[in-house]
Records
---
Amino acid sequence: MAFFKQNTNNKDAEMSFLQHLEAFRWHLVKSAAVVAVLAVLAFVFNDFLFDTIIFGPLQQHFISYRALCALGYKVGVGDAMCMTVKATHLQTLSASEQFFNHMWIAMVSGLILGFPYILWELWKFVKPALKDKEVGPVKVFILIASVLFLIGIAFGYFLLFPMSYNFLINYKVSSSGIVQTNNTFDDYISLISTMTLVSGIIFEMPILVYFLSRMTLITPAFMRKYRKHAVIIILIAAAIITPSPDVTSQMIVAIPMYLLYELSVFVSAWVVKKQNNNEK
């Protein structure tokens, strides 16, 4: 059964469905191999990975805390944006907890570092099926998707997680002091890896909107209509994430999320406009 034509320099060759699957399998194998190699490297350099990166937000001198504190003084709110990191030791409750979390963080690191290459393999897979005029835009798409993902990872690691963690670790249900928070290593690893990865995925929203707009499942008119609702949701999320009640720290989280939404509206409008021009 013929699937689609692969454009080559010499001739167009039709690939069968099974041949297409075989080609796709090898692209997956190459991507997995790169991620595995990067994960092994991350596993080997465990001191740097954990002491410098993973445990960075537990240090008072972490760059995000210093930057937020300096920004607070610059905008005239004093030390309202300064955070005092609670000195803590992460506990393990099982003999295998450190080993399996070490493996998990190594795999997550390999996935994050290898994400651009995964997209590159995806690009090589779909390239033969593209028309010449489509090759350029898809290259840009791969670049933008990679950049957005890495920006999202940075946003989650430097802002989202430190603010959320310090809020949660210092939260008290009562002032009696009866309940004490003794954080576990497993809980800490779960929180930092989840929030960082989720942030990277959320920053892919313009890419998702691009495909949904192409499938006419979403329109710029729809996104503009519910812009106010989106702003409210963003502000509520920022208020929950940020530990201090001042507006400045909330805006640091809310503004990038709002800009992401506006970028998605622009992407949707561009897709619809392009589709309308092609129909004429």
---
Amino acid sequence: MATLISRSPEETLALGRAWGESAMPSWIVGLSGDLGAGKTQLVKGLALGLGVTARVHSPTFAIVCEYADGRLPLAHLDLYRLETAAALQGAGLEDYLLAPRGVVVVEWFERWLDHGLPVDAARLRRVQIETVNANERRISYDDTGA
């Protein structure tokens, strides 16, 4: 597992951008971290790296935002409001996590795993963002699957 410290929102954005520039089709990025930890900031950077020109925002109420104008399509999912297995399954998100097109980023990814729902683990990068203090975030990630 790789770990780094981001000392600003701009550094988190730059990390996401670098990931977006090297992203391959069918990549799934599962993000975990508290509210305000920087998950959406990382996604904004990833979108920039993919060449997405649309404004990227958290899909907390929409659950899914799709962006098709980049080098690869980007699907940004937010599971914050989906707390039960029934709610997750009822949202119809399985295709995103079993047969992803482009890049799929999932905020609150632990909710999917906690309910034992399937994911294409061979294509998964799990990311944990922890708030160290007001200006620093510890970002740990692993590409070995779920």
